[in-house]
User: Fold TetR/AcrR family transcriptional regulator from Mesorhizobium jarvisii.
Amino acid sequence: MARTTGSDGERTEAAVREAAVNLIARYGYEAMSMRQLAAEVGVQAAALYRYFPTKEDLLFTLMREHMEGLREAWERARPFDADPAEQLAAYVRNHIAFHIGRRHATHVSNMELRSLSPDRLTQILKQRTAYEKELRTILREGAEAGDFSIEDTGLTAMALIQMMTGVIVWFRPGERLSVTEVTATYLSMTMRLVGARMDTYSAARPLDGQRTQ
Amino acid sequence: MARTTGSDGERTEAAVREAAVNLIARYGYEAMSMRQLAAEVGVQAAALYRYFPTKEDLLFTLMREHMEGLREAWERARPFDADPAEQLAAYVRNHIAFHIGRRHATHVSNMELRSLSPDRLTQILKQRTAYEKELRTILREGAEAGDFSIEDTGLTAMALIQMMTGVIVWFRPGERLSVTEVTATYLSMTMRLVGARMDTYSAARPLDGQRTQ
Assistant:
């Protein structure tokens, strides 16, 4: 997401990040050169190295900020004093909204882990694990409260995250369904998948009635 | 999958395909050169062009054969005279088994659509649509028979496929769970997600009791 305020330096750095996400999503990280990126942004290659001393610094920054953004969005979206079904519904809504708005960055974050050095890979995986743990905690608390019926909390969390992130593969704004409709249907599927009791399930569905066959 | 029988030419071609899948999964298609691939296989670059006149011919062959393999596996696995829950269970088992055994090829097939020419992209997308349609048909027939409770057949099919294919991202043989255990848990999640009636659902779960918390 390009910043529209800030110094020239900040604007350039934001433009570099945005162009890099698009180039990596299109060609892959290994195939993108800093020279190609500089040309895309309209600066000298040397200028890029002021912001990102190595190509991997750039990749790592993109991935770290993507995960930080996701976790911050969840911190803002999470309801307090809510039962597990409401918390799960909030997690689903936030996850889908965040990723639908960042299709290329999500692509890069999921695909290019292979190109991080071991230390940095560990850092990104730690961020991911922390985010996924939030979901596992909701699922476990729901199961313990008898609100959900779940065999394996870890597998259920992975299944839900991959199901939800998968929306970016096929969803395009302006086609058959709106984001609201897609989210409502994914919410229903999620609640059934975790075996939510019908009463908690209904309480967590304010978007009901917007679904299509 | 390398062939172990056949002429020298067939063996070389199989070795090229296998090396290409691994290199593309590691570096991305755009970053892989035919020279690098030839070195990996231990042949002259000119020899590669006998089998694959262009790099894109190679990519297209890998993707087409992946989808053909998936559809053939499903044709062999699909039960006839079975109710929708049994058919859905067979689809889930086949999908997970096929993809777990072909992690790199799945990666390549999902990521490198961006590098196909428009005509070839259309061909691969047609194969995918035909495969996904099989699942949509099962879901629709189950919903019509009152065995499943589904809001949107298309979205449910996409959600299930992405949830199942996602197994390759985290599953590693020899860790906490076996393929059989993972499949059993995914089968339960699938049956709940489609709102399967409990009796049909149980009938489709021969693997019951192998699940872990």
User: Anything to note?
Assistant: Chain A has two domains: 1-53, 60-203. Chain A touches chain B through 38 residues (CB under 8 Å). The domain at 60-203 of chain A is CATH 1.10.357.10 (Tetracycline Repressor; domain 2).
